[in-house]
Amino acid sequence: MLSKILIANRGEVALRVIRACHELDIPCVAVYSEADADSLHVREADETVCIGPGPVIESYLKIPNIIGAAEISGCDAIHPGYGFLAENPEFVLACEDNDMVFIGPGAEIMRRMGDKSLAKQTMKQALIPVVPGSEGAVGDAAEAARLAAEFGYPVMVKASAGGGGRGMRLVQSPGEMDNLFNMASSEAETAFGDGTIYLEKGIVGPHHVEVQVLVDRAGSVLTLGERDCSVQRRHQKLIEESPSPLLNWDTRQKMAEAAIAACRACGYVNAGTLEFLVDDDRNFYFMEMNTRVQVEHPVSEAVTGIDIVREQIRIARGDLLAITGSIQTRGHAIELRINAEDPANDFRPNTGTITKYVPPGGPGVRVDSHLYEGYTIPVFYDSLLAKLIVWDLDRPAAIRRALRALNEYIIEGVVTNKELCSAILRNPDFQAGNYTTAFIEENLERLELA
Ligand code: MV4
Known about the structure:
The chain is an alpha+beta fold and 450 residues long. 34% of the residues lie in helices and 26% in strands. The chain has three domains: 99 residues, 3-Layer(aba) Sandwich (Rossmann fold), CATH 3.40.50.20; 70 residues, Dna Ligase, domain 1, CATH 3.30.1490.20; 243 residues, ATP-grasp fold, B domain (D-amino Acid Aminotransferase, Chain A, domain 1, 2-Layer Sandwich). The strands form five sheets. Strands 9, 10, 11, 12, 13, 14, 15, 19 and 20 form a nine-stranded mixed sheet that branches. The chain has a five-stranded parallel sheet with strand order 3-2-1-4-5, sandwiched between helices. The site of ligand MV4 has 17 residues, from strand 8, strand 12 and strand 13.
């Protein structure tokens, strides 16, 4: 089973999946839009199929085109990467209807985790700690105000269909409730076609810590430590690291146990991530479960030695995990997301042709990127150019190695956020591990001067 895999993605993650296929000796097929004809994933795959014009709704998001490409090339499995169709249950059903193995969890669990309010209720029933809040949906602003009086301000109103920070508002006082409730609801209605809102107590100055899991088809669970993704701006992560500088062994173990219980409770299969908010006292609360491989998965690979994408494929073909429980991690890993965006210009994305490209190397350095000299960045897609992942024995050494690698890294022809990454790594609060999700907003001006 799994004789040929179609990769329903582009960019660095398409390359990442191709590499795993090659190591497993499974032939793989790249799909590409007309705008991606010169992309590296097209060059590296064993076969290629063009699936339409540059705009994503006409190519990478078009389910019939992807399924059609898989059929004509004789694939029996599809890896979705992240983004695009990776968390779309309709796509999973379309794969099943056409006898393709979807490399990920089933449609039912994906739908359940996609509804943030339902996901939370599911975890609460499994005795996973969740932020105190409404039991499911809240009908209107008046009901929200009654509940908020009970929990105490600030509260968060959140869209059930949301996630990743979309369709949520922090409400500081009763006077703001009407307005912010209705804003969140109409925003969710417009964005997701579903204005359903639920309510939570607001956690002030939270850390974002997530636990990586692998679950095989027999239901055995392996946790691969945590990632701290607190360095982010407007819900776009910039730096991720493992282990989290905030956690101690006790909290780490409790979070791993919670992640294992969560997977068992919902019958999860394949790679997944449980997102937690952690407060300054290291209380942790389940937030969301991501049912895909994530951008930042390499930091977990670096500290565990496990190839997460290879394991996704092996699990999908029915292989069992060789080890289960919670794996011991080693050393410290940091990932920096190099984006084609200008921090000095409100992070405006830009495109262009790469005129000079020299990636860093040496011990403990990994670069996941689809860039090459002469490559022209298409206008249709996200601004991620490269992920620089470093590993060393401890956090201070990993930070020094990251600065060294960033210094070596030459990317000319587009404006990047490379200098901002260096400035954060040099920041004394970052170096002390003393940062929350508000770090970039609080320090932006100082970081740019650095
Ligand atoms: C919260 C919160 C405070 N209190 N919920 C944002 C994304 C989504 N996954 C959950 N988010 C938050 N939920 C309560 N009850 C603060 C955030 C939040 C946040 C969370 C993770 C990473 C960055 C963040 C930035 C701002 C707000």
